[in-house]
Amino acid sequence: MKINVLAVFPQILDSLHYGVTGTAIEKNILEIHRIDLKDYPLNSYGSIDDKPFSGSEGMVISPIPISKAMNLVKNKGKVIYLSPQGKTLNQKKVEELATLNDLTIICGRYEGIDQRIVDEYVDEEISIGDYVLSGGEIAATVLIDSIVRNLPGALGNKKSLTNDSFSDDRLKGHSYTRPRDFEGRKVPDELVSGNHELVKEWKIANSLWVTKQKRPDLFSNLQLSEKEMILLQKYELAQKNLRKGDG
Ligand code: SAM
């Protein structure tokens, strides 16, 4: 997948050279073309922003550097403007974007970008959450990282994708590693039982329980099978008994 990123501080995207995204770049699964808007200034002083016509405080990125840069991007694909005013990103959108060959991301700064750039080039505005960042570069890093996990060959183990939170509209649940006993806190018996069926059932029940506890909004939309309901009821009873035992 090829992703073009237009930004005032493209160096902020350097963190994509580590971990899963870094490996994807090395394996040519992902190609990032960073475009520094400061290379397309408005004037000989190197400005890229200007005062808003509304008279409000702050500066707006001028449409001129962005359009100059956009005109040089060959395969734009879908064009996204990262903005707190966009639709909130979720796993479904990430998976949809991961099917594209080309993507162009525009990152704002200051008070944002001139609306005419949005009107002329942008297919979709995406927000990474209901809060305001100082710039779109970190949001672009978040968006690209989440997309890359879904590109074929990017993850060593394909199963981690299908087992991850949100893959089945539920959370993944608890994870444990060695030692079996850490300062008196033990790994659940089922996970060390050596019985694959028991482990599988524990994972289903734990995932449902965690989703119910942490994200009741997601849980209320789940259509549970009869088996899942029974597993969850048993798990909840065991948790209650555990708490009683603690008390
Ligand atoms: N004045 C804008 C507003 O109130 O909607 C906020 C501008 S913000 C300080 C500067 C830039 O950061 C935005 O143009 C956008 O690219 C990026 N940004 C800020 N919050 C974001 C969010 N939640 N999701 C995605 N991008 C965000």
Q: Could you characterize the architecture of this molecule?
A:
This protein has 247 residues and is an alpha/beta fold. The protein folds into two domains: 2-156, 3-Layer(aba) Sandwich (Alpha/beta knot), CATH 3.40.1280; 163-246, tRNA(m1g37)methyltransferase, domain 2 (Trp Operon Repressor, Chain A). The protein is 38% helix and 17% strand. It has helices spanning 19-26, 63-72, 91-97, 115-121, 136-148, 159-163, 196-214, 216-219, 226-246, and strands at residues 2-7, 31-36, 49-50, 60-61, 78-88, 102-107, 124-127, 181-182, 185-186. A five-stranded parallel beta sheet has the order 2-1-6-5-7, sandwiched between helices. A two-stranded antiparallel ribbon has the order 3-4. Strands 8-9 form a two-stranded antiparallel ribbon. Helix 3 (91-97) links the parallel strand 5 (78-88) and strand 6. Helix 2 (63-72) runs parallel beside helix 4 and helix 7 (196-214) packs across helix 9. It is elongated. The structure holds S-adenosylmethionine (SAM). The site of S-adenosylmethionine (SAM) has 20 residues, from strand 5 and helix 5.
